[in-house]
Each structure stands twice: as C-alpha cells, then as structure tokens.
Amino acid sequence: MSYESKLPDAQGRYAYSAEEDAVWGELFARQMDALQGHVAPEYLAGVRALGLTADKVPQIADVDAALARISGAGVEGVPAIIPPSQFFALLAQRKFPVATFLRRREHMDYIEEPDIFHEVFGHCPPLTDPAYCDFVERFGKTALALGKGYSWRMFRLFWFTVEFGMMRSEGGLRAFGAGIVSSPSELAHAVSGRAEMLDFDLMEVFRTPYRIDIVQPCYFVIESFDQLVAALDADVGAMIDEAKRLGDLPARFDAAA
Ligand SMILES: [Fe+2]
Predict the structure, then answer these.
(1) What is the mean pLDDT of residues 108-120?
(2) pTM greater than 0.90 (yes/no)
(3) How far is CA 78 from the centre of its chain?
(4) Which residues surround ligand 1, an ion (CB under 5 A)?
(5) CATH number for the domain including 115?
(6) Does a structural domain hold residue 253?
(7) Distance from residue 30's CA to the centre of ligand 1 (Å)
(8) Which of 101, 174, 244, 257 is deepest in the core (most CB within 10 A)?
(9) Into how many domains does the chain fold?
(10) How many CA atoms lie within 13 A of 79 on its CB side?
(11) What is the rounded distance in angstroms from the CA atom of residue 8 to the CA atom of residue 35?
(12) 3-state DSSP helix/strand/coil percent for the chain, to nearest 5?
C-alpha cells in the first residue's frame, strides 16, 4: 500500500496538498449523502458540532480542541499501528489515537489501513457524545486493568461497537460504528437487509469471531450509548474467563485463506 505517516510541524499542524483536500472533499460529500437515513442522529449532531466540512482535510489539533470543549475527549495523531497497551491507555484518557495520512485516489472505495478519513469522519463525531466517551474511557481502563490475556476479547467488544456498531433509533436501525460510517461498501451491506442484526449481548460479543478483510456478516445492535456504558458495570474479567471456557460461537464466514 505504501502509505507513509505524516509528521506535524512545530505548531502541531499537518500539511495536506490541494489533491488531498480534493480527495477528502469527495469522500466527505459522497459519504454524507450515502448516510442519509442510515446513520445515528448522534453521529450527524457530532459532524455539525465538530464543524467538519468538505472544504479540506481537518487538522487534528482543531478536532482535538473541539472535542475537549464539547465532551472532554480528544484525539492524538499516531504514526502507525500502536501496541495494545498504548492504545488502551490513550482511550482510558478519552484520547482517541488517529492516523494522519490520507488515502490516494486509487483507494477511494477501499483502504485496508485506517486513514484520517476513517479516523476523523468515522470515529470523531460520536466522540462528541458524553455517554459514548464514557464507554470509550471505561473500555480503555477495563482493558488496561485486565491486561494481555484479555485483550483479544476486548478487541471484539471494540470491533462490534466502536468500529461496527448499529443502534436502534426512532426511524429504525442506524449505524454509528466508524467502519460502517466511513466505508461505502460496508454501509451498503449493513443496510441491505442481508446482514444479521443481533441484539447487543456482551457475552455473545466476547464469543463472536470476526474477520477484518470482509464486510461483516453480522452486527450487534444497541439501544443507546448508555447501554454500552452500563454493560461495563459487569465483572468483565470473569465474563471473559467464562467466554473462553465456553469457546467461540460458530464463525459466520470461511476461514481466511
Ligand atoms: Fe477505526
């Protein structure tokens, strides 16, 4: 794929070319259009609150300042994939780690690594919601406290909520997970009626395998962000021990080649 992480200047600003601003603008306009009627109202409120537009690639520092003001959350530019302990530690401080490079035109529709469009357009709007931030913070703290042997199942929880979560709202099922919201193909699949929609259940999440390289065969549906916060009232360590003892539920996909 050959993407290089961008580094900030002394003022913490990242330089994006006119072509990169144009790519951002096209991605933004296309997804905002596709999301109509399919995305959680909390998400759209977040886009407005952050002042995200099609004009240009947003600056991490500006998004960070806005989140701090709105919900006490923030973002931190990271060079590449970071170790789980560092990832959980940032989340525990309500800081979301974000990649800063932007995809090139040949990857408009699909990119394997998360770029700044996925990170800011996908992840940041829900971070304006205090309950969602409480969940992210508690998730980070819980994962940190449990340590290595529990990370794998904790990543499943992250995957089926922060990345690929759906929620029930007045108009019907709506997406809030960044992997759906920021991806044309995932969104089309999620609203196609062909994917399984499962009521959110923490034990089931811990026992459900996923693949990162296919559209998701199933999604978990929450009632509200408060439900996610409350789910972490449980003795998560004991639940994961039990999930390990019970074993994984049958996969809804073929094993990766
Ligand atoms: Fe993500």
Answers:
(1) 91
(2) yes
(3) 15
(4) 114, 178
(5) 1.10.800.10
(6) no
(7) 19
(8) 174
(9) 1
(10) 2
(11) 31
(12) 50, 10, 40
Length of the chain as a residue count? 257
Q: How far is the CA of 96 from the centre of ligand 1 (A)?
A: 10
Cα torsion 137, 171, 39, 42: sign: negative
**251 is a domain residue:** no
| pLDDT tens for each residue of 178-218 | 999 999 999 999 999 999 999 999 999 999 999 998 999 99
pLDDT of residue 109: 86
Lookup result for tokens 């994961």:
240
Residues 127-144: what's their mean pLDDT? 98
Q: What is the DSSP string of 209-255?
A: ---SSS--SEEEEES-HHHHHHHTTS-HHHHHHHHHHH-PPPPSSPP
User: Reduced to 3 states, what is the DSSP secondary structure of residue 18?
Assistant: helix
Q: Is residue 11 part of a domain?
A: no
Distance 33 CA to ligand 1 centre (A): 21
